[in-house]
Amino acid sequence: MIQFVIISRIKLKKQLRCNWRSVSGKLLNKESILKETPINFNEIPGPKSYPIIGTLYKYWPFIGEYNAEALDKNAWLNWRRYGGLVREVPGVNLLHVFEPEVIEAVFRQNDRYPARRSHVAMLHYRLSKPSVYNTGGLLSTNGPDWWRLRSTFQKNFTGPQNAKQYVENTDDVVREFVKWIRDSKLSHNEDFLIYLNRLNLEVIGVVAFNEKFNSFTLQEQASESRSSKVIAAAFGSNSGIMKLDKGILWRIFKTPLYKKLVESQQYLEKVSMDILLNKINFFGKEHERKNNSLLESFLQQPNLDLKDIIGMMVDILMAAIDTTAYATSFALYHLARNPECQQKLYKEVANLLPTKESILTSDVLSKAVYVRSCIKESLRLNPVSIGVGRLLQKDIVLKGYLIPEGTVIVTQNMVASRLPQYVRDPMLFKPERWIRGSSHYENIHPFLSLPFGFGPRSCIARRLAEQNMCITLIRLVLEFEMKWMGGDLGIKTLLINKPDKPIKLSFVPRH
């Protein structure tokens, strides 16, 4: 009898090891599922879940230990306590994934229309205004409606040649910005992020709409000016998205956060309509037809109507101003904190552009290897968001667990990118790790750092965003030596990762 119990326990341990072992991120096929019964989703480690409230209590003020504006810190807690897969139930089934092999498995699904559960309140608002919008836009729409928009708009965004045609226009704007910095003699006590927001509004205005906002004039720097209100509306739209996604009260009555979203969207709608109507009124004039803005290309698409274009214009204003400004501010922070990297960057740029009057072309940009590596490394440490979200459209098996359809998966790329098992000296800013042939080069897993997402739902303006950052870094480092005058910089997670402290930089002219 004792021998039988011992043998049974040995068999049970072997079975448990079989169920718990990693499948290296690969999904089990039907034969594997028949051989091994997947473990129930509720068995995945994670915070204790209660009826009705699930794990929402973790985010409640005073009671919970999680902070909705510090999701990176929450993710660190989850990783240390529960491991590579972590289950939460804040109203929906939520799965956090930390291991790059498993992240890859999530993105290798053969979904015709990859879906996500995001911008739920914005979707609700836009669908309530059929006179203005056909859909919720690229950010919040799923299914065939999303694919119609994505497949049409991406023709103007995603090709390498599409971004290259805007190098000259972007460089003109950035050069004006650099001159403004030199002439205004900025103090390091000012938050430079404010001016990066204005820079990116100017760039996207010219590239997307052939529109100048003149946001660095004294008039436009006033709080009630058009450019100031556009920047505020973009932030107002983005900052409450995640809280509204988790909330339910706004569905019953208009909460203050929902009202802020609505007011912000309405102002961006107004600006977009004004710009669009102005362009249409002059559409017949030959000189107006020669501009190569994104808006011009939208107007030539036969399967888009004006409501689709308005939605895309609002999305561009929402996504382009804050996102690129935050990403650029982190890159400047890392370069200013690492003067040896900044010096290498300067040497490369000075070699490519021997004088400040040298023309920056797409060919010059293609040779800026160290510039691009600095951006990659900054985005590894401080990505646009903590990770990428997906809404499962069918049951799958990950690491022996059955993950049911309808589960929201969040890939925790920011935390994973800072783990020593995946990156050597992960907290060091070391651009050389991305340069093939460098003694510091690392063969980093391709799904470890995904600052722009992956696949059909990746950032549609990725090439433009990276190009804008490259041009900004090139022109700033060519003109100034940059010094960091603040303390350690963390993040505030407001859908996208915002610096949690002012960007305090000193700009010392090189000549």
Can you describe what's shown?
This protein is an alpha+beta fold and 511 residues long. Helices cover 49% and strands 8% of the residues. The protein has helices spanning 2-20, 30-35, 71-82, 100-107, 120-127, 143-153, 160-164, 167-184, 193-209, 226-239, 241-246, 249-252, 256-281, 286-289, 294-299, 306-337, 339-352, 362-366, 369-381, 413-416, 462-479; strands at residues 85-88, 94-97, 388-391, 396-398, 401-403, 408-411, 480-484, 491-494, 496-499, 505-509. The strands form 4 sheets. Strands 1-2-6-3 form a 4-stranded mixed β-sheet. A two-stranded antiparallel ribbon has the order 4-5. A hairpin with a 5-residue loop joins strand 1 and strand 2 (94-97). The N and C termini lie far apart (89 Å). Mean pLDDT is 90; it is low at 1-28 and 30-34.
Relevant terms:
511 residues; alpha+beta; four-stranded mixed beta sheet; two-stranded antiparallel ribbon; 21 helices; 49% helix; globular; disordered N terminus; oxidoreductase; oxidoreductase activity, acting on paired donors, with incorporation or reduction of molecular oxygen; iron
Q: How would you summarize this macromolecular structure in one to three sentences?
A:
This protein has 511 residues and is of the alpha+beta class. The chain has 21 helices and ten strands. Helix 9 (193-209) packs antiparallel against helix 16 (306-337) and helix 16 packs across helix 19.
